[in-house]
Prior knowledge:
Blueprint: H1 48-59, H2 79-87, H3 100-116, E1 126-130, H4 133-154, E2 165-169, H5 174-182, E3 186-190, H6 202-207, E4 213-217, H7 231-244, E5 251-254, H8 262-265, E6 278-284, E7 296-300, E8 312-316, E9 319-323, H9 333-370, E10 374-378, E11 385-390, H10 392-397, H11 402-409, E12 418-420, E13 429-434, H12 441-460
Parallel strand pairs: 2-3, 2-4, 5-6
Antiparallel strand pairs: 1-7, 6-7, 8-9, 10-11, 11-13, 12-13
Helix pairs in contact: 2-9, 3-9, 9-12, 11-12
Amino acid sequence: MLHTRNTIKKDAERYSFKPDNSSTPIFGSRESDTILPRTKIGKKSMDPKIAYRLISDEMMHDGNPRYNLCTFVQTYMEEEAKQVMFDTMATNAIDKAEYPQTTEVEKRCVNIIADLWNVNPDEDFMGTSTVGSSEACMLGGMAMKFRWRKRAQEKGIDITARKPNLVISSGYQVVWEKFCVYWDIEMRQVPMTDMNNLTMDAQKAIDLCDEYTIGIVPIMGITYTGTFDDVVALDKAVTEYNKTAKLSVPIHVDAASGGLYLPFVNPELKWDFRLKNVVSISTSGHKYGLVYPGIGWVLWRDKEFLPDELIFKVAYLGAFEPTFQINFSRSGSQIWAQYYLFVRWGFEGFKAVHEKTRDVGLFLAKGLCSLGIFKIINEGKNIPIVCWTLKEECAKDKKWDLYDLADRLRYNGWQVPAYPLPKNFEDVAIMRVVVRADQSMEQMSLFLGDLKQALSDLDKAYIVSHKKNVDEDGKVIPVGYTH
Length: 483
Ligand SMILES: *Cc1c(COP(=O)(O)O)cnc(C)c1O
């Protein structure tokens, strides 16, 4: 949140109590009898025990992340994994010379992921960790832009005549909008047209391409619904297009949620470097890579797709290490945690965790279906994202809608967003649960029980008026929706 002058209120009165001593109870201390600093740093130091208690009590206001069913981001790690993170918190991932082993471990992770994504042994892949998929997508996008510019110039295309463009489905995650705004690129959206198949139409994507197209971005795990774009069909269409195109178009796959899920659960599905036009892939380590936020990964199938001018060299063991990142300093602990998880789980462990997660998702979808009032849009077979809407006849009959249901579920601490679908289907409100590794059958059955109770309460409730939360343009503001 950006803080403005308006949000700043005057501090509470300064301390005027007797000093504490070692036997003062925390909640008998002068500090617990006053408001914590909001706009100005306090004058005196505070005992760490008291400070910890007061700060940690503020955390309670965030609710229990384990009950946050809308987030893709990891909310549980084992004690040993947390210890690894704690032990490495003080390392700085950018200091290659000072922390050579962090660099080594990052390389091992890149190698492991490259192998999971089926790199071609004849090519020279490159990759890096990032803060999350957002940074990873930015890097993938920048590489495509710089490569486009160089090739366009070589072909004699007037690069100043128009803005370069990026082709993506209208179900894109907000990072792509940021990318296009920050790097001055025209976003060409492929509208999703089939309510029963909310993915990018390969031919429609091709129709939007021209010699100013830096690339096409399919999504493996569309944020709204969890559906996949058909990268095989897209790759085929791109191959056809490139045969006669003035400038060939590459594919960057945004596999934020699918990238570290599919290789374990559905290795046959082709969406990765097995497809020849896929030049780069990004993913979030903190989604199905199972690390606490924030870590992401981006890989290029070959050096050729990562223009030299984007690479900076930092000192490393008497030589120079190439780096390509927007960020500079950041802790190495997420990298170590990612490596720990690869070591700890192995292929079979990841597979077991992800398959259990999928089972829990399917169980939820079945439970929802049995209630008879929901239409399931995605039951979570491909990736454990379950998403549903009210059946049309129920939407008409009921005095409440999914936004009310989201509110009601909050009584039990569950955070489940209701939000409108993207372009073409804005009128359809849906609910989504992202099933995560730390959700058991038991937890999901508790949730279903609370959901049934919520429905019965809503049916009985006399809803006096229900105003949708709308912005100035009359657009519905989603309740608790996070990407
Ligand atoms: C989550 C997500 C992102 C952004 O990822 P962060 O790791 O949160 O930065 C980008 N694209 C898609 C499809 C996502 O699901």
